[in-house]
Amino acid sequence: MTPPSSLETFANPSIDTDYTIRMTMPEFSCLCPKTGQPDFATLKLEYVPNERCVELKSLKLYIWSFRSRGAFHEAVTNEILRALVAATAPRFMRLTAKFNVRGGIYTSVIAEHRQTGWSNPVC
Questions:
Q1: Domain boundary assignment for the chain
Q2: CA distance 7 to 65
Q3: Three-state SS across the chain?
Q4: Known catalytic residues?
Q5: Which residues, 6 or more positions from 71, have their beta carbon under 8 angstroms from its beta carbon?
Q6: Considering the chain, what percentage of its residues have pLDDT values greater than 70?
Q7: What is the pLDDT of residues 33-70, one digit of tens each?
Q8: Region 98-120 average pLDDT
Q9: Which residues pair with 28 in a beta bridge?
Q10: What topology is assigned to 9-114 in CATH?
């Protein structure tokens, strides 16, 4: 079975409030584009929604869709962020991908999006 690679959303129930949603996805995997060996990562997503929030089951299936794809760490992290931003148009979003060791090297990739004109009211 091939999982769907689309993201579903729902209306933000507190659109007038800046609040942060944080998710940890410890079972991300894709394939190394050079060797075909599996790469494993923990994805950490945090975002301040605007009008739409991402639906969790569709996110799980979307993340699962990368299991049989070859992708460099940097490319896949930015691809996922772009898809999430396109689906939800958040005020702020950060995706951190912490990949397991490969050849003695741990790789972390952090990609961010910030809506034009939005600033964190806490800072």
A1: 9-114
A2: 11
A3: CCCCCCCCEEECCCCCCCCCEEEEEEEEEEECCCCCCEEEEEEEEEEECCCEEECHHHHHHHHHCCCCCECCHHHHHHHHHHHHHHHHCCCEEEEEEEEEEECCEEEEEEEEEECCCCCCCCC
A4: 32, 39
A5: 30, 31, 33, 79
A6: 93
A7: 999 999 999 999 999 999 999 999 999 999 999 999 99
A8: 91
A9: 41
A10: GTP Cyclohydrolase I, domain 2 (3.30.1130)
Query: Which amino acid is residue 36, in one-letter code?
Result: G
Report how far residue 80's alpha carbon sits from residue 77's, in angstroms, rounded to the nearest whole number.
5
Question: Which residues, including other chains, have CB under 8 Å from residue 58's CB and lie 6 or more apart?
Answer: 4, 6, 7, 8
Q: Which residues contact 101 (CB under 8 A, 6 or more apart)?
A: none
Cut 0.85: pTM above it = yes
